[in-house]
Amino acid sequence: IGPALRSMAGATGFKLEGETMRTSYRIAMAVVGCLTFAPGAQADFNDKKPINITATGISTRSIFKGIMEVMHGLYRQHYPGTDQKADIAMAVPPVELRNGINGDAPFPKSIKGKVMHAFTIMDNLDFFFIAQKDWSEKNGIKTIADIGTKKPKMTLGLSRRGTYYSNTAAAQVFAANGFKIADVKKWGGDIAYSNTRNGIKDMTDGKIDFMFQGTIQPDPRIKRLAAARGIVWISANADTLKKVAKELGFHYVTTPKTYYPFMTKAEPSMRVDIYTMAGAHVSAETVYKMVKAIGENIDKIRAVHAAFRGFSLKQMAQKSALVEYHPGAARYYREKGLIK
After folding, report:
1. What is the predicted pLDDT for the residue at 1?
2. pLDDT of 184 over the 70 cut
3. What is the C-alpha to C-alpha distance for residues 318 and 44, in angstroms, rounded to an integer?
């Protein structure tokens, strides 16, 4: 996401390590890669002239890949063929956006005013804090505060390096409980950085003791994990999570005990909105048409994955206070009575 937003703001020539993929259509999708910018030609907001979008900032193996395919299908359906190029960043979490606006790492300088809100693609990404039951009982760990006090040897499961929203949240929650991520190795343990899918698999294989990550809950993979191994929820202090959520632009929520069979009570957690940003250089009519194509096909988005079953126009319009609506998106939301 960092390189994606930097690219939207005008930086070029970056390189990413790890998984990359580029797939070209008449509407081009770049999952990760460099962007070239060209303003859209002026046109009527309601015309049927096609749009050309280079989208960046999503994983090659996540549910966002699927929803991007559906969105591009909608664009092709409504606006077939084009010579224009527009640029958006998919799946931007609040921390990555904040770092970009402030010019904090990995951004060399602020991108304030260069990225604008197109729509919120997700508002239901919640954190979970789970551990192996035998490890928890052996070390007397029932809360995250217990970890700071008892300093147990463990393998800690965190999101992949570069997933700033998740690992920043972990760092701040841990700090509020008297320890740092790096302390895990000082206690004789290790840190496993991976995506949620691989992290849960490693827990199933007994390779991870305690996992702090985010997912769409209830997650069937966690249910299958619980069926294979003894798992417990490690409680977090509600006031701590409320403070961290406010600082990072998250929402404080509670995870119902009905989500997983091993939960004995509702547990405090945090929820993350995921945004789609459009470069300020992108023409208003292009973003309007893009947002309209999605807004008028809500059912098709919901059908992509269970994670999007609550997708709605109201959700699309909710944005971070750090950015303004792109003029094209604002026009559509005003037409729908969602903003003034």
Report:
1. 52
2. yes
3. 26
Would residue 38 be called left, alpha or beta, if left means φ above 0 and alpha means ψ between -120 and 50 degrees? beta
**Cα dist from 72 to 90, 155, 317, whole Å:** 12, 40, 20
Per-residue model confidence (pLDDT) at position 262: 97
Rounded Cα distance, 66 and 175, in Å: 36
Q: Which two tokens stand for residue 236?
A: 């977090």
Q: Which two tokens stand for residue 239?
A: 């006031």
Query: From residue 281, how far is each of 78, 145, 190, 318 by CA, in Å?
Result: 23, 47, 44, 21
pLDDT band at 18 (very low <50, low <70, confident <90, very high): very low
**Packing angle of the helix pair 2-9, 94-102 (nearest 10 deg):** 40
Q: How many helices (H) and strands (E) does the chain have?
A: 14, 11
pLDDT digits (tens, 9 = 90+) for 123-169: 999 999 999 999 999 999 999 999 999 999 999 999 999 899 999 99
Q: What region does 96 belong to: left with phi over 0, alpha with psi -120 to 50, or beta?
A: alpha
CA distances (Å), origin 320, targets 25, 67, 116, 244, 324: 31, 21, 10, 16, 8
Residue 32's pLDDT is 27
| Amino acid sitting at position 36 | T
Supply φ then ψ for residue 116, to 5 degrees. Answer: -140, 155
* pLDDT tens, residue by residue, 65-84: 555 555 555 655 665 554 43
Q: Quick check: 35 pLDDT over 50?
A: no
> What are the tens digits of pLDDT across the range 258-269?
999 999 999 999
| Residue 84 C-alpha from the chain's centroid | 28
* Amino acid identity for residue 194 in this structure: S
